[in-house]
Amino acid sequence: MAEQRSPFAGRTAELDALEAIEVPFLTQIDVRCAPEIAQRLGFPLVANTVAGDMARGVLWLGPDEWLVVGLSGGAATMVAELEAALDGTHHAVVDVSQNRAVIELRGRDRHEVLASGCSLDLDPRGGWAPGVCAQTLFAHAPVILQELDGATRVFMRPSFAHYLVDRLSVAR
Q1: For residue 141, what pLDDT is reported?
Q2: According to the model, what pLDDT value does residue 4 have?
Q3: 81: which of 113, 119, 132, 165 is 20 to 30 A away, CA to CA?
Q4: 27, β-bridge pairs
């Protein structure tokens, strides 16, 4: 099996300057099912919210779509558990772990830096707080933002990793 290579390889200095860290090779499982089935699984039904913890979190992406995120290397187990729980229902469970690279921005100015290329209101007074997430564009690149306590996760396609690090660096 080929060794995984981070799309951020060689960008450590830029990530450090951004007060960012890579969150490498997260397990990411896309789940599509009717909301009443998701409710049975305990998935959040409130738009743009996150349930769970860092070992297994569930991000609401749409009325019938969730991204289940877990620790690296757990995709097969997670897919099997979700498939078993959804057995007999109309659903889709797909391992998309290789589809997105992830960084966490930890600087105090992270919301302002992200606001430079994003149309979302990221002001905590406006509701952007830990436990929320959203799909959006940052500098024309599709991203998912997840607010944590003291950090913002940015999920992006690996092919946009260098572009987004460059764009974030310019905004800083």
Answers
A1: 97
A2: 80
A3: 132
A4: 70
